[in-house]
Design goal:
Elements (H helix, E strand, L loop, with lengths): L3 H14 L3 E3 L5 E2 L5 E2 L1 E3 L8 H19 L4 E5 L3 H12 L3 E4 L12 E2 L7 E9 L3 H12 L3 E10 L3 H9 L4 E6 H10 L8 H9 L1 H11 L1
Parallel strand pairs: 5-6, 5-8, 8-9, 9-10
Antiparallel strand pairs: 1-4, 2-3, 6-7
Length: 219
């Protein structure tokens, strides 16, 4: 039985313990987009921890079976979704392919690497969902290649409204092992952050693009 709430909390615990996720509400990170953020997530760190890696592999596999049933192939999103996708494909005994961020500029000029067959039912594996833009570019590439995309799974999502809207517009279902709200709840209860930081962290998720500007005005 797939117990969603228990898994969300366990994954949040793992990500915080191994520092795959770091929370710094009073000393925010700067993302490539220029956004100021109190959180930094690098789920590639999970690959260096065998017990965490195994748990995530097993739960992503169960999530796929629970949400999407039988599929023909697993596809990873370059780059961080590739190793997670390989692990899941191995667990399911399925073929694997991955989608590049952009087509190769040499050789075959491939955008999708691996052997795919038109009509295959595929689940896409991602490590993290922020706005969903890069994930949905991979979904579009697979659809354009003639595959039927059942949906997408990831380890973690920030839970942005923009991501929800983007996936809805693309008519692509997605499911994640854990999420920002669960993470903040766990972090506060287990002293990864101070209780009075929760409001600051909650405000960021509601309006991430403007949060840093508001923080600068307060300081």
């Amino acid at each position: 039985m797939y117990n969603k709430s228990d898994i969300e909390l366990k994954v949040a615990e793992f990500l915080l313990q191994i520092k795959a996720i770091k929370l710094q509400p009073n000393n925010p990170f700067t993302w490539a987009s220029g956004w100021k953020s109190p959180i930094y997530c690098d789920n590639r760190v999970t690959l260096s921890h065998p017990s965490v890696r195994t748990y995530i592999r097993q739960k992503l596999t169960q999530l796929i079976q629970e949400e999407f049933g039988s599929v023909d192939i697993i596809a990873g999103v370059a780059t961080a979704g590739i190793p997670q996708g390989v692990l899941v494909a191995q667990e399911l005994g399925l073929p694997f392919a991955y989608v590049r961020a952009k087509a190769k500029e040499h050789g075959t000029g491939s955008l999708i690497e691996g052997e795919i067959v038109e009509g295959q039912r595929v689940v896409v594996v991602e490590d993290l969902i922020s706005t969903g833009k890069s994930s949905l570019q991979a979904v579009e590439a697979l659809r354009n290649a003639g595959l039927s995309v059942a949906g997408l799974v990831s380890i973690f999502t920030y839970g942005f409204d923009q991501a929800e809207e983007n996936f809805k517009a693309a008519k692509c279902r997605f499911a994640t092992l854990s999420n920002y709200n669960t993470l903040i709840e766990y972090a506060a209860e287990h002293s990864f952050i101070a209780q009075n930081d929760v409001d600051l962290l909650t405000k960021w998720r509601r309006n991430p693009s403007e949060w840093g500007k508001e923080l600068e005005q307060l300081t």
